[in-house]
Structures are given as structure tokens and as C-alpha cells.
Write a structure and sequence with these properties.
This protein has 265 residues and is of the alpha/beta class. The protein contains 10 helices and 10 strands. α4 links the parallel β6 and β7.
């Protein structure tokens, strides 16, 4: 199975003398790489950590096997503490947790935000329908960044910032780049995360429009597994007739030694 990549490969610096060393192990080398073009973004520094690429998933297998800078743990159900707790504990990178704003509103969003802060989240993500009063209540209750999702160019950005939004998450579909560009005209310094799209040019245009960090939606584990399974099917005869005598000998020696140690003890 070849190494999984999204759009292009890592460590493609023009100057080979400044190439970043890439350490891999025998088993954990097939990780999911974020597009290298995202490194063109300025990033957002949170608690001393610069975040440029953000993977949009709640799949723990992908979270544990990617090189993204952070995770957007947002999903289309009411947020649950057990889910955020599991993701934060398993993740080796910062996690931004969804705390409602659409179906889930009011006091529950405040409670959820305080809970994920205690669990170790780097920030909370609130969906676009949330009111400014609710946003203010959440941002005033926690000491981690509040990220508000923006889906329309008609959004009153100034009101969102005044209500406590520390970071804007622009998710406007095909209008994302235009929304980012319009925000930058009036708010040159507000941190912006934006969806990157499916191509290298889409990501670069979003960055050029003013996004500081980019979210990437990865393929599903089923899609990622397809290549491996195809390889297994194509080489089925080889696997079936591969008598690994070295491994059999190793097992025999291990069992014999264990038996001997028990006998002498």
C-alpha cells in the first residue's frame, strides 16, 4: 500500500539543504498527509502553538494517523461530553470541540463549553445560527478561544467580535473565498479559519483571500482502505502461499524459552 497523501507530498522544499528530516517507523508510516500548500498560510498561534492545517473529523483512527496541526471535532448531532472527552484523550494534537449553536442552544451550550475546557479542548466551535447573546454568554464563561462559524457574507462580523468571537470559521461552500475576502476588507487582523476545498488551487486562493488556517475534510476510512484491500486481492496467491518460516521459528523459540523459564523457576 502506498503512502496516503492529500493533493501533494510533504517535504517538497525547493532548497534540499533545508529539507525537513522525515522520521518514520515500519508500521506507522502510512499516515494521512495534509496538503503541503497549506504551509503558505500564516497560521494562528494559540498558547504558543502555530496552527495552519485543521482536519475536520471525529474519526479517531484518522486523528491518530494524520499530520494535521489540529482537529475540528464538530458533528451533526447534539454535542455530547463523552464524545469530546474520548477525542481529546486520544488525540496527540489540539482539538477544537463543537458546542452547538444550531439545534443545541442556550444554557446547554455554556455547560458544554465549560466541560470541554475542563477536558482539555483548545477552543470551542459554535455554529452560525447562534445568537449574539448566546455567543456572549459562552465566551464569557470560558478561558479558551470561542470560534464562530460564518456561512454568509451578510453576517455582522463586528457584532460577532463584540459578542466574544476570538476566531472566525468561514464555511461558505463555493462562496468561502469571497466571504473571507470581504471580511479582510474591514477586519484585517481577525484570525480566520476557512474550508479549503478539494484542489490545490482552491486552497491557495482561500489563503490568498486572507485565511490564516485551513480545514480539510479527509476521505473516509472505507475509502482509505480501498487501496489496501485491492492490493490484498491482487496478491492473494502470494499471501496464501507465503510460509513465513522465520516467523514460525521465532514463535517456537519464544515458546520454548518461556517453558524453560517456568521449569527452572
Amino acid at each position: 500500500m502506498t503512502e496516503k497523501k492529500l493533493l501533494d507530498s510533504p517535504n517538497s522544499e525547493k532548497n534540499p539543504s533545508r529539507k525537513t528530516p522525515n522520521i518514520q517507523t515500519k508500521l506507522r508510516h502510512q499516515i494521512l498527509h495534509m496538503p503541503e500548500i497549506i504551509q503558505e498560510a500564516s497560521g494562528i498561534r494559540i498558547y504558543g502553538r502555530t496552527i495552519k492545517s485543521i482536519i475536520f473529523t471525529t474519526d479517531l483512527a484518522i486523528i491518530k494517523n494524520c499530520d494535521a496541526d489540529a482537529v475540528f471535532a464538530v458533528y451533526p448531532f447534539t454535542p455530547q461530553q463523552s464524545i469530546s472527552d474520548a477525542i481529546i484523550k486520544a488525540s496527540s494534537i489540539p482539538v477544537f470541540c463543537g458546542c452547538g449553536g444550531g439545534t443545541t442552544r442556550g444554557l446547554r451550550t455554556i455547560s458544554l463549553a465549560k466541560d470541554v475546557e475542563c477536558q482539555g479542548a483548545f477552543g470551542v466551535v459554535l455554529n452560525s445560527p447562534i445568537t449574539n447573546a448566546n455567543l456572549k454568554a459562552v465566551s464569557s464563561s470560558i478561558d479558551i478561544p470561542t470560534i464562530i462559524t460564518v456561512v454568509s457574507p451578510k453576517t455582522n462580523i463586528e457584532a460577532r467580535i463584540n459578542a466574544g468571537a476570538a476566531i472566525l470559521n468561514v464555511a461558505g461552500g463555493k462562496n468561502t473565498r469571497n466571504i473571507v475576502s470581504r471580511i479582510r476588507e474591514t477586519h484585517p487582523d481577525i484570525p480566520i479559519i476557512a474550508t479549503g476545498g478539494n484542489t490545490k488551487s482552491d486552497i491557495l486562493s482561500t489563503i490568498d483571500a486572507g485565511a490564516n488556517a485551513v480545514t480539510i475534510t479527509p476521505p473516509s476510512t472505507a475509502d482509505l482502505f480501498t487501496e489496501m484491500m485491492n492490493n490484498y486481492r491482487e496478491n492473494a496467491d502470494q499471501y496464501l502461499h507465503n510460509d513465513d518460516k522465520g516467523f514460525a521459528q521465532l514463535v517456537y523459540e519464544y515458546v520454548s524459552k518461556a517453558h524453560s523459564d517456568r521449569h527452572h523457576s
